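R.M. (postdoc): so does anyone remember the format we settled on? I'll just put the structure tokens first.
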């Protein structure tokens, strides 16, 4: 009978944690307990390190968008005066590299744009690019998601 070595790592850390507690090494026990917790918590759990890191990055991107206030193309673009239509992740949120996101949005004045947001680390985010697009381009982009298309452009005719 062969054992999966990855399955033995959490068992070994729990055993070492118990040994450290018995011998009175509380700092070691605390460290090993934290490692055990990280190894045993499933990735989809609300307490998963990866999940929490992803939530921090999402929040940072949202704040960067809402705080956006730039002048470009002869207009002032204010994030919190815009309605987000779609968000597309260009890179994996769990990578150690910067996380890149594109946000398709419509201003209160009716102008469409795409804001590219870069999140480095967990909480450092900024809008790095802004693209003004036409309503026709927005229709084409939202066409990939019929519910989003209907929210902004109404129900399309069935072919």
């Amino acid at each position: 009978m062969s054992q999966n070595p990855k399955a033995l790592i959490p068992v070994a850390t729990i055993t070492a944690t118990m040994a450290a507690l018995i011998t009175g090494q509380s700092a070691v026990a605390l460290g090993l307990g934290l490692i055990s917790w990280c190894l045993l918590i499933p990735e989809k759990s609300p307490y998963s390190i990866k999940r929490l890191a992803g939530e921090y990055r999402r929040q940072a991107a949202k704040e960067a968008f809402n705080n956006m206030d730039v002048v470009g193309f002869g207009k002032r673009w204010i994030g919190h005066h815009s309605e987000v239509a779609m968000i597309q992740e260009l890179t994996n949120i769990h990578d150690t590299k910067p996380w890149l996101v594109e946000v398709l949005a419509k201003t209160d004045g009716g102008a469409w744009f795409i804001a590219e947001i870069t999140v480095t680390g967990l909480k450092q985010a900024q809008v790095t690019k802004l693209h003004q697009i036409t309503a026709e381009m927005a229709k084409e982009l939202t066409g990939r998601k019929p519910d989003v298309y209907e929210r902004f452009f109404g129900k399309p005719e069935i072919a």
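R.M.: ...and that's the designed sequence above, right after the tokens. Also worth knowing: The two ends are 60 Å apart (CA to CA). The chain is about 45% helix and 30% strand.
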